[in-house]
Specification:
Belongs to the UPF0166 family. Pfam families: DUF190 (PF02641). This protein is elongated. It contains two helices and eight strands, in the order βββαββββαβ. The chain is α+β, with helices and mostly antiparallel strands. The strands form three sheets. It has a four-stranded antiparallel β-sheet with strand order 4-7-1-8. The chain starts with a strand and ends in an 8-residue tail after the last strand. The protein has one domain: Alpha-Beta Plaits, CATH 3.30.70.120.
Length: 115
């Protein structure tokens, strides 16, 4: 069965070396999302990026160390994402958080597929 519903995609742009509570910030955010019961999330390495520092951060540069950009994406219904934001904003020392409205199509396992 396929269910179409309104959703928000939350993106958090940060660095691989950003930490929260002794662990990588991207991991802390995803664990918080899982505990909150959100629909799903992932952390994606980005080969290159820049932000407020105006310096290019890249995992390609051997001198960059652990400064590779990371993008965390989490998706769920708008009300659930809005309720989740205040939980993670104190964890983020600097960076950008974006919200994008979209349609989410859930494919429920075990049900016959419908067009």
């Amino acid at each position: 069965m396929r269910i179409m519903e309104d959703a928000l995609l939350l993106r958090v742009f940060l660095g691989e070396d950003d930490m929260a509570g002794g662990q990588p910030l991207y991991r802390a955010i995803l664990e918080a999302a899982m505990r909150a019961g959100l629909a799903g999330g992932t952390a994606l390495p980005a080969p290159m990026g820049f932000g407020g520092s105006r310096g290019i951060r890249t995992g390609i540069n051997v001198d960059a160390g652990a400064h590779q950009p990371i993008v965390v994406e989490i998706i769920d219904r708008p009300d659930r994402i809005e309720a989740f934001l205040p939980l993670i904003e104190p964890m983020i020392p600097s960076g950008v958080v974006t919200l994008e409205a979209l349609k989410m199509r859930k494919i429920v396992p075990g049900s016959p597929a419908q067009a």
